[in-house]
C-alpha cells in the first residue's frame, strides 16, 4: 500500500461521504427480478428502490457513471467512486450479477457505457442473506435494456482533466453478438498526477511536532476485460471472463518540513528544532483474474443453477527511501541526512474461489435460494527494512542500546505469510403473500480459518497467529404497500467486515522518523447489526430511518508519547490499525425524486440528520506492547447531511443539458477526532450531437472539499490534520457511439473471487 494511500485512508476512515476505495468485500445476488416500470420513475419495491431510467430525461447523452451520480440516494464526491448515503460502500451489480472488476477498471467501464443502454437502476440499501457483502455495504444493480439483434457496436471515450496537474484518459468498448456467441471487451488507459498538501500537528504543552508539505503521486494505468459467453442450448450457458489492471507509480514523493518544540523538566522552552523529511517511492501493481461460469435454467418459472470457479493473482512491488535532514527555519538543509530508512514492501496474493447457487421458484410466488462458497487465499509479504543513522560527516554513527553496541545500519526483515480459508452457506425464503404484502427471511453461516506466520526474530507473538471464528448472520425484511401512494418497509441485517490483506501485514509505513502508520496482523473481524425503516409517498418522496451498531470497529488510532533523542523531547506519533471499541450510527433522511415543468427540470434532494456515538479506548501498541497515554474517543455528535442533484433540459430536442449538484456534511465526531464540515458545489453542461456527446464539468467550485480534523484528549495531548487534495477541477470529455445500437448484451457474469479482490485494495 503506497504511503499516500495510507495517509488518505487515515483521514477518510469515518467520513459519511468519503469515497474510500474501497477495500470492502462484496458478493453476488442470486436473482434480481426485472420488473417493468412505465410511468413511475422512482419507486420502492420489496427490498430496493427502483429508478426507471428509461422514463427519465436525464439519461439522454449521459454515461452510466454520470447517470448513477444523478440517482437518488447515490453520490460521488471525487468523480471516481460511488456511495449510497449512509453506507460505507456501493457495490456495483449489472443485471443481478457482481461486476468482476477492480475499482479503477470499473470506473472506466461505467464511464464508457452509454446511459441509453440502461433500463433501470436498483438501489438496495440493506442487502439480503444471498449477498455476501461486508459491514454496511449497499448495492447498486444496473439493469440493461434487452437488445435482440446480432452485430457489433461500441463506443470510444476520451477526456482531459485539470486539477492541480493535468490528466488524460481514453477507452474503447466493444460488444459483439452472433447467434449463440456473445463477446464484450474493453481497454482503457489513464495518466495523472495526484497532488496533496498536508499540515499535521500533534503533542501537548511539553513537546509538539508539526509536519507540513506536499505529497505528489504520478500514476499510469492500463486495464480492460474480456467476456466470452456461449449458449450451449436454450437452457444453459457457459462463460469465461478475464479482467486485468496494471498501475505504475514511479517517482512518488513526499516532502515535509518538520518543526519540533519542547521544554525541559523545569518547564523552560528549549530552542526550536527543524528538520526536513524527503521520501521517494516507486511502486507498481498488477491484478489479473479468470472466472469460469455455468448457468442452467431448470424450469420456465425462472429457477436456475449457477456455478463459478475463479483464480485471482495480485502483485504489488514497492520500494521507498526516506531521508531526514537537519534544517533551519528557512529550510536550508544539512549536507548529509541524519537518518535514512529504506523499505521494500512487496505483496503477492493468490486466491482460488468457488461459488454455487440454486434458486427455485414456485407457482405460489415463493422463491427459495440456497448456495455456498469457498475461498482459499495465500498472501506473501516479504518486507525488508534498513535504518541507518549518520554522523555530521555522513558516515554511519556508533549506536548503543541498553549499553551494548548495535549494528548500524540496522536491518529489520519481516517475511509474513497469511493463509485464509472461508466457507459459507446461505438459505433465503422470499414470499409474496398478496399484491400488497411480501417478505424475505434468510441467514448466512460463515466459517473463517486463518493463520499468519512471520520470521520476525524479535517479536515471538508474530511468529504464529491463528484466527478461527464462525458467524451466524440472520436477515429479515417486510414490505407493505398500503395503497398506490403509500409504501412502508422494514429490514434487519447482520454483517461482518474482515480486514483487508494490507491491513494485516505487520509493516510500518514511514512518514517521518517519529511519525508513521503501523498495520496489525492481530486485527479481528468486526460485526455490524443494522435496522432500517422506509416510508415511500407517491413514488416521489421517501423517509429512511436507520440504526447500525458496529462491534470491534476496524480503524487507525493515533497513539502518541514523549521520547528523548539527543537530549531533546519529541512527540512520537503512531497511527495504528486495530480494533477500536464500538460505534453506533443513527440517521433519519427525507428525500425527493421528481420532474417539473414537463420534465425540463429533474431534481433529487436529500436532507437528514446523523448521530454518531463512539466508544473507543486504546493505550497499547498491539505489535510491540509499548504503553502510551490513553487515547479515548467516547464522544457523541449530531450532523446535518444535504445532497441535491439537478438537471435542466435547455432545448426541446433534448440536446443541451445543464447540471447543478451540491452536497454538504456537517461537523461530526469520527474515530480520529472532530471532522470539520465538508461541502462541494459542482456544475456541468452537455451537448448531444448525433452519436457524439460533449461534456464540460466543474468540480468543487467554492474550494470547500477539504479535510480538517482536530482532537483534544483529557491528558493534554492534541492531534490536528489538514489535508487538501485539490478537488477543484475542470473535466472535458468526448464520447462517440458506433455500430448497431440494437446488439444484444451478453450475460454479465459474477466471479467467485469477487470477495477476495476487494480486500486487495
**Main sheet characteristics:** 29 strands, antiparallel
Radius of gyration: 27 Å
What is the helix content? under 10%
Multimeric state: single chain
Strand content: over 45%
For the termini, the CA-CA separation is 8 Å
Protein name: Outer membrane receptor proteins, mostly Fe transport
Domain Outer membrane protein beta-barrel: 296-736
Subcellular location: Cell outer membrane
Keywords: Cell outer membrane, Membrane, Receptor
Give a written overview of the molecule:
It is found in: Cell outer membrane. With 761 residues, this protein is mainly β. It is built from 5 helices and 43 strands. The strands form 5 sheets. The protein has a 29-stranded antiparallel β-sheet that branches. Strands 1-2-7-8-5-6 form a 6-stranded mixed β-sheet, with no helix packed on it. A hairpin with a 2-residue loop joins β19 and β20 (404-406).
